[in-house]
Amino acid sequence: MATAGRPAALVAALLGAVLLHGTARAEPQASAGVTVGVAGVGLDRQLWDSTVFHVGLRGDVLFGRAANDDFGVGPYAEVLTHAFDEIQTGAGISVLAPIHDAFPLVLSTGAYGRWSEDARGVEPGIAAAIFWGGRSYNFHSRYGMSTGLLAQVRFGLGGSKETAVVLAAQLDLALLALPFVYLFEAAKGPSPEAAPVRRAKPAP
């Protein structure tokens, strides 16, 4: 019994250290992005039977960070599709490991539900993912932009015995919105508070 309790005690100690690490100024930081790439999918436990297009939305909130070199832990949620003939939604927990100040690793694991043409009703599943890319701590906002690479394994527990390996780029929503914000501001024209620029007269 003592041997069996050691892994649980180690996990509890690690989570406690992550949550208590940092100072009182640590605030939760959210991030959301679009994932675009490919998925190797298969049924009846056939790994990578065919390659299809993957697109999704993924967001998380990390707690316990006060600087770039801090660990973080928190929930994530996602919605995605493979080949546009199914939809999957899921949630779980993410842990950020600061292997580099600006390029940390984010490890995630959770559960999902799958709706598709080949499934009878909703099929449950479990997923594990690793993200690596730019995600520095934002000292001025509770939102931190994240852009990088995402690798994911999805293991269906329903009757179709679906599996998927996802390789995708994750692009931050705020970054994708910048061109639209610029076009919107440009369409509005100059601010009424801005002083008009007058051409200077040439010197005599």
How does this model look, in words?
There is one protein chain. The longest helix is centred in the N-terminal third of the chain and has 19 residues, at 2-20. The protein has 2 helices and 8 strands; from the N terminus they run H-E-E-E-E-E-E-E-E-H. It is α+β, with helices and mostly antiparallel strands and 204 residues long. An 8-stranded antiparallel barrel has the order 1-2-3-4-5-6-7-8. Strand 4 (86-97) and strand 5 (105-116) form a beta hairpin. It has helices at 2-20, 173-188; strands spanning 29-42, 50-62, 72-82, 86-97, 105-116, 123-134, 147-156, 163-172.
First-residue to last-residue Cα separation: 97 Å
Spatial order of the strands in the main sheet?
Answer: 1-2-3-4-5-6-7-8
Helical residue percent band: 10-25%
Beta-strand fraction estimate: over 45%
Mean residue pLDDT:
84
Number of helices: 2
Poorly predicted ranges (pLDDT <50, ≥5 residues)?
Answer: 10-15, 17-24
Number of strands: 8
The best one-word shape is elongated
Q: Topology as H/E string?
A: HEEEEEEEEH
- Rg for CA atoms: 22 Å
Structural class: alpha+beta
Biggest beta-sheet profile: 8 strands, antiparallel, barrel
Produce a short descriptive summary:
With about 200 residues, the chain is α+β, with helices and mostly antiparallel strands. It has helices at about 1-20, 175-190, and strands at about 30-40, 50-60, 70-80, 85-95, 105-115, 125-135, 145-155, 165-170. It contains two helices and eight strands, in the order αββββββββα.
